[in-house]
Amino acid sequence: MAYEAVIGLEIHVQLNCTSKMFCDCPNRPGDDPNTNICPICLWLPGAVPMFSMETLEKATLACLGLNCEIQPQSTFDQKVYYYPDLPKGFQLSQHHMPLAKGGYVEIIDENKKPVKLRLHHVHMEEDVAKLVHETEGRTPISLVDFNRAGTPLIEIVTEPCIRNPHDAMEFLKTLRREIRYTGSAECSMEQGTMRCDANISLRPEGSDELNTKVEIKNMNSLHHVGDAIAYEIKRQTESLNNGEPIVLHTRLWNPEKHITTVMRAKSEGPCVPDPAVSQIVVTDEWLKKIAARLPEMSSRKINRFVTQYGLMHDEAVQMSSEIELSAYFEAVIKNGSAPRTAASWISTQLIPAMKEHNYDFKALPVTPAQFAGLINMLEKDEINSNSVRAVLEKLFETDQTPEEIVEQFGFRQVSDMDALESIVKQVIEENPSAVENYKNGNKKSMGFMIGQSMKLSKGKANPKRLQEIFKQKITNS
Amino acid sequence: MQETIFSYMDPAPPCASENNILTGLTVAIQPNLSVRGWPAQAGSRALEGFTAIEDATVVERLRQAGATIKGAIYMSELGLGLTGNTGADALKNNKADIVLITDNLGESRVSACAAGVFGFKPSYGIVSRFGLIGLIPSMECCGILAKKLADVSRVMSVIAGNDNRDLSMPDFGPDFGPESGFEFESGLKLPDFSRVFEAKKPARSCGVIKECLEIMEKDEQSAYEAAISKLAKRGIQPIEVSLEDFNMVRTAHNIIGAVEASSSAGKYDSVRYGHRAAGSKNWNEMYLNSRAESFGMPIKSYLFQGAYFQHENYNAFVDAARIRRRLSAGLDQALENADFIMLPTIRKAIDPFTADTVNEIYDSFPWTPIANITGHPAITLPNMLTCKDMDLGMQIIGPRFKDANILSLSAQLKDQA
Question: Do B272 and A50 lie within an 8 Å CB cutoff?
Fold first, then answer.
């Protein structure tokens, strides 16, 4: 029988608030263990939780960025369970009345069609402490680091509306981009600031039933999510084909072995209203103030880049992948570059160079004006593409204009016909077999000859002109 | 005989400020109210060796106003009921002017009745709970026991009011009086406790909950009716009010209280403080053994009840919460017609100080839990409702956040008695 997968995702996102959710301890992952703690986040007797407005603001911003409806009233519940990472025997979360309902994320699905993947709700939740298991040494011990206890999270729960691994990954990519745009979270799966669990079930293709699901945890990258879902669909299909029923349980993704394995059954605790944290009432007026802080979201920006600048969809997605990048891109255009050329040079030259130098757009020393100047020289054939990277390297270090750098370091492209012709002549003389091969129809030989010419010109020759001269000389010989 | 009354006495009380509103007043607290550096065991082995690291807001304010916090009395485990509580003895033996007893289901009012003094449970949310090692967060209040009504209002004038460390408190604006024309965003004004005794409006009506008569013993009922007619003779007309769910107060309180207690006591895991059982193989066993050895029987069953409603019968909790809301609205409405609601405080034949099961605890608090469920202020007045020489304690309940009014009414009733 042909099966269809029904996939729902639950995503935890760490908000980048300066303080914790119910106390004013700093929210700084990476600090020394148990340095950012107080009686409230340790839940010492007599402590009473406060509530951070920053958490509410950032959570609301993220929800607005995901097109959710902010609820006028929301409340906190206690998720009751006992574990050493939980100093009070319950986790404060929103179960009965979440902060936001509905919402969607628009992706291009596997069949290249735009589709809106719907969210069920988004709620706020406190993170728990981190357990560090020391297995080396004579006696294995577990240590508890409370720095993370009480730091703010939002949990995004989708409808079971995802059908394949591709769409799940696209969903996560888009979700991450949109939330980053709101400035409320970093959303790095690798660094654990975004964590994703997947619920997967199968049903006969064309049916609309919802069958017993299996939950997958421990997917620490986008690719883990795609791979784990693909594996789980295969595993469940085989089970059903062998006549084995699917039972509700949780599995862990093993990225080394590329399989999911059964996780120890964990009893799902009850959720009871919390009597200590008061109800959150959101007024229209306040909501308007928060909404005004929302930037143009990436989904709209992508469409605008396509219509306004004539970018291809892929290019528009790339130029919108980070809010700072999109601002840089538009600034380069304002400085006179053609949009598609700018997009192409940003993605092929600037971004790789930035990665090498460990720069992000916030700290990038190359100004949009400098970069536009560079592109401008390239367009005018004043330099060749080989020199772009070299000029860029200098731009990372100095405040000079690209023109000055080109002059100072002699990057100007040699387009002078006499100079080029003498180079071509030399290459033809030194490589008779390559010339012969080209004559016999081996097009690759042209590349070799141009390469040799570039070497002779120390990379400054204009390769387009070189090719013209080669063709002319060889045909005429 | 101080050691039988106090579990801890401050060896060197800080010098009280002079000429302050509470200068000279001595206060005894329960060891569930945090005083920095004091043992705070809240009557439970689960907190063995725990020392408070911050002052409770109430403690901080009392000291700033010149009061001396003398020491801590003995209390029941985690403050549920009055088993073993020595607050009444502290007052009877003149060991303190004020005793603060956390009121979860009537503890401050019932023990005041036993001591023959005033016992006031303020409105929920008017006194900060910061630093209180509580049990039932949505009901617990800082109860005040005092021989003089004036001391109750002096203490209230110091401890009541906004504290941003307790979220369950609404934002109060100060009360500038009706003629000021000043309105606050929340609409709530902090009562002016300095004017409690300048009563302008004499009491005219006393609400009598019809349904409460049904659960009274014969002689309790006649004592109650006698008290009503005494009031009537003074021009305070009895008004019959109906609270349909009155007989559900106990059940609703028990379910909600147990559920909240179960969560509140979840932190007692023996990891960071408190008694830890020896010889456990893993953390789970350590939790179980330590909790088994730490808690006494009534608390064990109460927490177990709470866990049962959380895990197995959540619907009962939802029902209880609904009944609670109806009771609260019903009481609000009754108080629109009557100046106050009058009830007895204790039962004739049941001793709250020796109760050792959850049922016995609830049996000994028949009339008081309603104010904890609804959050209304309530006070017990001594010697105004007696049954064959036994003081059943006249309890009057007033509108929420009008705590000064109820104190003002109490003064009128006492003066006229």
Answer: no
Alpha-carbon distances, residue B95 vs A272, B66, B110 (angstroms): 42, 18, 19
**Are residue A118 and residue A267 in the same domain, yes or no?**
yes
Kind of pairing between the strands at A280-281 and A73-74: antiparallel
Distance from CA of A86 to the nearest CA of B (A): 9
Q: Taking CB atoms and an 8 Å limit, are A88 and B266 in contact across chains?
A: yes
- What are B255-294's pLDDT values in tens digits? 999 999 999 999 999 988 999 999 999 889 999 999 999 9
Query: Tokens 């005041």 appear where?
Result: B112
Residue A292 within a domain: no
Say if residue A282 is in the same domain as residue A319.
no
Q: Do A39 and B164 touch (CB under 8 A)?
A: no
- The answer to whether residues A43 and B267 touch, using CB atoms and an 8 Å cutoff, is yes
pLDDT of residue A345: 92
Query: Which runs of consecutive H residues, i.e. helices, occur in A119-164?
Result: none
CA distances from B217 to B92, B296, B345 (A): 28, 31, 14
In this structure, is residue A293 part of a structural domain?
A: no
d(CA A411, CA A420): 15
Question: Closest partner residue to A272 among B269, B272, B317, by Cβ?
Answer: B317
The total number of structural domains that make up chain A: 3
Give burial (CB, 10 Å; 0-12/13-18/19+) of A456. middle
Q: Look at residue B1 in the predicted model and tell me its pLDDT.
A: 45
> In chain A, whose CA is at the least distance from the CA of B139?
A275
Claim to verify: residue A404 and residue A421 sit in the same structural domain: no
- A146 and A218 together in one domain: yes
Count the Cβ atoms, other than its own, within 10 Å of residue A147.
24
Chain A residues whose CB is inside 8 A of the B164 CB are 50
pLDDT at A425: 84
Residues of B in contact with A87 (CB under 8 A): 267, 269, 271-272
Residues A72 and A98 both lie in one domain: yes
Q: Which of A27, A20, A124 is nearest to A79 (CA)?
A: A124
B156-206 pLDDT, tens digit per residue, is 999 999 998 998 888 887 776 666 666 666 678 888 898 888 866 788 999
Contacts of B166 in chain A (CB under 8 A): 48
| Residue A400 shares a structural domain with residue A429 | no
Q: What is the CATH number of the domain that holds A433?
A: 1.10.10.410
Kindly state whether residue A304 falls inside one of the protein's structural domains.
yes
Question: Last residue of some domain: A255, A287, A319?
Answer: A287
Architecture of domain B2-416: Alpha-Beta Complex (3.90)
Residues A401, A315 within the same domain: yes
DSSP characters over B289-316: HHHHHHS-HHHHHHHHHHHHHHHT-HHH
Per CB-CB distance under 8 Å, the chain A contacts of B131 are 46, 48
- Beta-carbon contacts of residue A176 (< 8 Å; ≥ 6 apart): A187, A194
Task: Please indicate whether, in this complex, the C-beta atoms of A270 and B311 are within 8 angstroms of each other.
Answer: yes
Q: Are A68 and A55 in contact (CB under 8 A)?
A: no
Instruction: Select from A223, A253, A287 the last residue of a domain.
Output: A287
Q: Which structural domain, as residue segments, surrounds residue A20?
A: 3-287
Q: Identify whether A101 is part of a domain.
A: yes
Indicate whether A405 and A423 sit together in one domain. Answer: no
* Secondary element (H or E) of residue B343: strand B340-343
How much is the average pLDDT of A453-467? Answer: 78
Task: Read off the pTM.
Answer: 0.88
Inter-chain touch B267–A272, beta carbons under 8 Å: no
pLDDT at A414 > cutoff 70: no
The torsion of the CA quartet B107, B109, B114, B115, rounded to 10 degrees, works out to 110
Q: How many C-beta atoms surround the C-beta of residue A348 within 10 A?
A: 13
Apex A232 CA angle, A231 and A238, nearest 5: 95
Contact B196, B153 (CB under 8 A): yes
